């Protein structure tokens, strides 16, 4: 790249950085100005709204004063004459039939003496505000009387002969003041409650299209682009007579013309600045081209000398820089000739040295691997055959290749030593880990229930086959009391040691909870809350837990995201047990589970299992599926013993897999009810 080009690029880069800096400062200044304008808008609108509310409450106070000084009103109020009160109010000039007007009289005993509503129930003031008004305090401000209705009220306390104090409450719809507020700021205004409901709006269609997200309790000022037009959105919180927030006034001011004018000015300024920069860069480049022409001529001469052409001369002579360059060229030519002679002498010495180095390299090659040695010697021989090859470069290549091979050989030997050492350590650790996993497997199988004690009313049998050394499935059955048997089958998400630990915790908590929480739904809910509190590993467990009354055969159960069990009737009919609609345990704290009931007839059987049965895959990646389970159960499961039923299911799954590795833990639990009149087990 030419020097003048580099100088031009540097100057252009400087101009660009300067323009970007000015642009960034302008953007920052605009943002600060927008923030300040927003604060001023919030402050101004807050003051305007307070003045409007104060003006309205002052008018309401003057009207209440006229009502209080009206003799007909006083007389009618003393006798609780509602028609008389209404007539007296109309004489004062108040249209109580106006839906935007609210008037109410409340006695000291909090009885509504008069109301413009259809009932006698008080609905304008709450209990706290009424207590303050009865003490003589004048309440003025806003009051929300329904979910989507806000009014401006003022109160006046009067003394009634023989009845004590009474509170006069007069109010007007806040939408009237809001319209005046909208005219004052020349913007569409909407009054919303704390729940976001629209009380009134001067342009409801604009509000619906804007879809503004507002936090009513916090003042907000922001920009909005809607249908190609710019709006300033300002939200100010408004308070009721008790001082608490009741909603917010949101104004949408159309600033499209101002924004477009500002954008036009900014674009014009940017275009002018870019034009000035381009003119400056082009002028600088032309000036540098004219100034650097003599220097470029001198550079061409020097390039010719570098190629060995000493016949060229410099066309410019004199005492300036170019003349001094011409004198230097003459001196350079003599130096080049002397340098050529010196180079021939060094070349003869170098060749003798290369012969000695080659001999040493051949001796060094004998110390490396036989295969590498042959390759190094071949490389040396190849260089000797090529007489045009630079001997020093050839020796350097051989030396580099030889050094690389020696380093690689040393690295391989070091790596082999390290790998052997690590292999011994890993083998020792693996042996210890396998021993610990085998112990964990034995411990896990030991905590599962053993054979159920003989009982003429019921027979239970469970079986679990982990996919790894330890698994996440578990089953359990236990006597809750002399006539109630609890049973459960569960599947923890994941496999291996984490799932096994979570399985042990879940089983322990479930069994301990079931002893004092007899309702299966309540028991699972407590278990879910306990496991979901500190579940940092995000594990969960599907559970089917139920209790069976051995006297009646009634089964109450909860299905928390588990596979639907099967009910096998004595006649051989196979049906699925309906789900209770619960999610897996330890997913969401506070989830409420539902429980269902069913009744077992003598000879009926319940078969429970985990998804390791239905999701077992054969060597063709085909799942076992629920259809095969149902077909197997219909083949005489009602006549098999509970232990035989589990064994037949597991055997059928293994035959289906055809040697494929077990994909998940497999667990089965079979319960058969014989009736509640047999001999009972004593505890």
Quick recap:
It contains 16 helices and 20 strands.
Structural commentary:
- Residues 289-341 form the HAMP domain.
- The chain crosses the membrane at residues 6-28, 269-292.
- Pfam families: HAMP (PF00672), SpoIIE (PF07228).
- InterPro entries: Bact_Sigma-Reg, HAMP_dom, PPM-type-like_dom_sf, PPM-type_phosphatase-like_dom.
- Keywords: Hydrolase, Membrane, Transmembrane, Transmembrane helix.
- With 683 residues, this protein is α+β, with helices and mostly antiparallel strands.
- The protein has helices spanning 3-68, 71-78, 82-92, 127-134, 174-185, 204-210, 256-291, 293-306, 321-365, 370-385, 391-447, 496-514, 520-533, 611-614, 625-633, 642-657; strands at 101-107, 112-115, 140-146, 149-160, 164-173, 188-193, 198-201, 220-226, 229-239, 245-254, 458-465, 473-481, 484-492, 541-549, 554-560, 566-568, 574-576, 596-599, 605-609, 666-673.
- The chain has a five-stranded antiparallel β-sheet, sandwiched between helices.
- The chain is flat and about 140 Å long.
Oligomer: single chain
- Secondary-structure-based class equals alpha+beta
Query: Mean of the pLDDT scores?
Result: 82
- The first-to-last residue Cα distance is 100 Å
Helix content, binned percent: 40-55%
Sheet having the most strands = 5 strands, antiparallel
Number of contiguous helices = 16
Low-confidence segments, given as residue ranges, are 678-683
Described by the principal axes of the CA atoms, the overall outline is flat
> Strand share of the residues?
15-25%
Count the beta strands. 20
Radius of gyration using CA atoms only: 48 Å
User: Strand order across the biggest sheet?
Assistant: 2-1-5-4-3
Pfam families: HAMP, SpoIIE
Keywords: Hydrolase, Membrane, Transmembrane, Transmembrane helix
InterPro entries: Bact_Sigma-Reg (IPR052016), HAMP_dom (IPR003660), PPM-type-like_dom_sf (IPR036457), PPM-type_phosphatase-like_dom (IPR001932)
Organism: Xanthobacter aminoxidans
